[in-house]
What does this fold into?
Amino acid sequence: MKPFSKINSIITPLDKANVDTDQIIPKQFLKLITKSGFGKFLFYDWRFNHDGQEKDDFILNDSHYKTSQILVTNENFGCGSSREHAVWALKDFGFDVIISPSFADIFYSNCFKNGVLPIILDIENIKKLLQFKGAIELDLESQTIIFGDESINFKIDSHRKIRLLEGLDDIDLTLKEDAKIETFEKNSSRISIFE
Amino acid sequence: MTETLFEKIWNSHVVVERENEPSLIYIDRHLIHEVTSPQAFDGLRVNNRKVRRPDLTVATIDHNVPTTDRSLPMIDETSSTQIKTLEKNCEDFGIKLFGINDPNQGIVHVIGPQLGITLPGSTIVCGDSHTSTQGAFGAFAFGIGTSEVEHTLATQTLWLEKPKTFEILATGKRKNSFAVTSKDIILSIIKQIGTDGGTGHVLEYRGDAISDLSMEQRMTICNMSIEAGSRAGLIAPDEKTFDYLNNRKYTPKNYDDLVDDWKNNLMTDANSKFDKTFTIDVEKIEPQVSWGTNPAMVSDVTSKVPTPEEFGNNNEIQIESAKKALSYMDLKPDTPIVDIPIDRVFIGSCTNARLEDLKDASEIVKGKTVNSAVSAMVVPGSQMVKLQAEELGLDRIFKDANFEWRESGCSMCLGMNPDILKPGERCASTSNRNFEGRQGSGGRTHLVSPVMAAASAIAGHFVDVREWC
It folds into this structure.
């Protein structure tokens, strides 16, 4: 995974609550067997009419936001289905950071596995960011977001932060604990399904 | 020290624990299906890794299988590719697969318990959020993403932050326990605690109103824990649990010894502390019907579609969501729920497609005919459920009433196969999610219990099923 670096980008404001993963990536696009190429299907039913034409009133279709790497949204983002395709689609579209007052658990965890940083901020700061025009600076190392004259700090689990900053592979790290996994299996034998 | 059931299961599965870091948790059961696994197997191949414990892993095909005649070739090539990919992956990595023509094929959360693969006190994962269903057996069962599927395949463990605990205490006795179902209980709970009420928590459902439920009814409750934001929900095992799992295809050989052990250990100790508690009196619950686009947007069948302000209760974001939901659902506030006409009925999904669900629905349908304006289908949760239902003659009852009787799979719960709503169609569905477009782009979903779905199919609109039995 690519190490996570500093970001300087405008914000795409998506002022909606309870955005579920069915909206982020509808089911008809879950049939691919690769991890790439999901960006074009992101928010498909919100972005496109039934005839495949772009809807003018949806923010992601506004060319102003084309280079944005930061999505700011409202509470309980990513609820519903566990489909990691939702994160693959956001990342492939160009979003490296999602900022929300709260995230659904599985989605939150899926973000870190794909180098996407989910940031939880209080509702007042979310409101400010949703209104803010212009580029913001985001630094994971110092856990700060600078926009205009304001600077806010965000919290993140230190373990997850290091993994993102260094772009570490989870499985490689776990395999370093192999001896402990083996000991666990020896000490309490697991019940095989097919004994 | 007193501990909750969840804490006991967690503690007995910790492989690595360090201060202020996630813990490495051992996984006892890993269930796999065709949609969320291909990229995980690819990852193993790229890194030249093996599956650590094929003996703790099983696979089936459920999400995009057609529910029509399976002797015919599949029309959808991409679905077919995904299915063939799983078949190859299982062969290459030595994983047992219940394939498309296997008598044990079915929705992954239906077959786990039915085959005795689901065990009390165990940790169970699957790349599907409704894995929480299996918490009904006193297991810590939760959905994971594809990266975690790959991680589990390679290491049989997952890094997890310890969730908090949330007690859902259900008291009282249902008035009319046939017409007011466990689906109505869980919808009422979600309506009150909200779609993110359980985020970061594991729910434990407790109280007489829970003990009173059959295993299949308990599964319906745990299934929808994720709709309240909880990755997992569980219920302490009891005699009903142990009876259910006895003599299944993969019930462990030393089952009696295991049961003795579970009886002594798998309960929340008296005076244990939960991080949160919510109490619900089931006596007050009536049949529920969802009217909006998330599972907290639910009303009593005898009430009306609320105004956004009534629903939002001064919360701007909620009021705005309700406005959008009503517009998507094409509903006007103050419409009586029973005046809402329907076009389609879907009895199926991991929430409500087990044998008892079909039996109860058939009681309502018996001797009646589906309204001429409605098209209705029954999709059993597994091929085994289908066979058992056919042995009881339930298929005849449904077919005589003009229901379609299908092969098993996830079907119109998420519409990955050809079973979808057309834009604008309105469906009474026994599934779990009423999200925009969930059952088909532009489709409108109303979540209900199997008996409510059955009665609505006959009437052509929602009805209070209590008046029918």
User: Anything to note?
Assistant: The mean pLDDT of chain B is 97. The longest strand of chain B covers residues 164-171.
